[in-house]
Amino acid sequence: MSKVLIGGKTPNRRIFVLDTNVLMHDPTAIFRFEEHDIYIPMTVLEELDAGKKGLTEAARNVRQVSRFLDGLIQGASKAQIDRGLALPTAINVSTNKGKPTPSGRLFFQTAILESTLPASLPGLGADNAILANTLALQKKFRKAQVTLVSKDINLRIKASIVGVHAEDYSSDKTIEDADLLASGTQALPANFWDKHGKGMEPWQQNSRTFYRLHGPLVKEWTSNQFVYDPHAKGIEAIVRKVETDAAVLQLTIDYHAERNNVWGVNSRNREQNMALNLLMDPEIDFVTVLGPAGTGKTLLTLAAALAQTLDHSRYTEIIMTRVTIPLGEDIGFLPGTEEEKMEPWMGALMDNLEVLTQNQSGGTWGRGATSDLLRHRIKIKSLNFMRGRTFLNRFIIIDEAQNLTPKQMKALVTRAGPGTKMVCLGNIAQIDTPYLTETTSGLTYVVNRFSGWAFSGHITLMRGERSRLADYASEAL
């Protein structure tokens, strides 16, 4: 390997040493370092080879990485591999449009690098081998900045201790900070009508009230965003259309009122009312509802699904699914059919069905009959069998969606056929999937990517409505 070539002659050129877990997490990682060089130790290739078998997401990613590397190395001579292989940018890889634009270069470990690990790091484990390679590169190419990229926190800590610059892989972040994620609502300032009331055009259509407004604030709004007057009994509306210098607002339906109950459920706060407006709107195909435990995400969604499936016949059935990640130790093998295996994971569904059927008339017999009817109209499906399917005229509920990766979320959302509504529920503060964070979760991904689309809506529920005990526990614990 030529000392002149790796790291380049540019003063700001950097060398990134990739850990195995980065490639297992994101197969396209080798294309995401722009003009900088990438170095892959032989240990990483060995670990990739060991992890290629199986049907897990990680195994699929490993096989994809191997295909990418094979495509890059195809036809290259030993001398070319030693000099480094030109990498196309991530944009060219994802779109496949035009010729790949050479950016950084990809180097493999083609020779044994001499490096002595500190005595405090005994053993020949894979992590120590990668760390030794990084130390050797750092000593050999002193003018280039060598960085170890790993999602393993402990490896990054060890790297810092021995004087190696280490970073987490952040190119998969869909948003820089979870606090920047849209809430789906915006409070109107006190002087809003003074600046936006002039030239307002009101009208009614199909018993709904609309307003067309002009003013500086309308440029900040997006389709299906909620705006409200924070004062008691103030206006509450949804942005239906954003034009060049104007926006069309539609007053929301008041689901606080008993006459507008949804399968016996009324909203208890402003955000719940907004959520029901999204869930009951036939023009909105995709809804994301975020919020901590006890805010009513599942209850509101299930009530809206039952009302539109059984009362309005808008959908033929309800499909509910979630990621099967246990809170504690796994309980092991579960006997029975797909639905019977999924039932232990669907406790939230059963709890909410009990709430929705307790007010049914006909006494115990009537509630039992209603519960049996609902069980036949609600299908519980596993995520493992979703690939290749197309759902027509279904109301699909994805619970605990914060545990899905962006790739898994894409695979699920693309299952929706004509007439299907999909609702994703979750709390990004409770992620159980390894290597997923608030900024890389599939739920954050779709909230960010679907923002502003005319047929999608998002709302973040703030206030818990489960019980005074649950509310106090959420705050005090």
What does this structure look like?
This protein has three domains: 14-167, Rossmann fold, CATH 3.40.50; 182-251, no CATH class; 268-476, P-loop containing nucleotide triphosphate hydrolases (Rossmann fold). It is an alpha/beta fold and 477 residues long. It contains 16 helices and 18 strands. It is elongated. Helix content is 32%, strand content 19%. The protein has helices at residues 20-25, 42-50, 57-73, 78-83, 90-95, 126-140, 153-161, 192-196, 270-279, 297-311, 338-342, 347-357, 363-377, 406-413, 442-450, 468-476; strands at residues 14-18, 37-40, 85-88, 102-108, 145-149, 165-167, 185-187, 201-205, 208-214, 226-228, 236-242, 246-251, 286-290, 317-322, 378-380, 394-399, 421-426, 456-460.
Straight-line N-to-C gap = 56 Å
Beta-strand level of the residues, as a percent range?
A: 15-25%
Shape: elongated
Put simply, the count of helices is 16
* Order of strands in the sheet with most strands: 3-4-2-1-5-6
The chain-level mean pLDDT equals: 83
Report the biggest beta sheet as strand number plus sense, adding barrel if it closes: 6 strands, mixed
Find the CATH topology of the largest domain: Rossmann fold
Brief overview:
By secondary structure, this protein is an alpha/beta fold. The protein folds into 3 domains: 154 residues, 5'-nuclease (Rossmann fold, 3-Layer(aba) Sandwich); 70 residues, no CATH class; 209 residues, P-loop containing nucleotide triphosphate hydrolases (Rossmann fold, 3-Layer(aba) Sandwich), CATH 3.40.50.300.
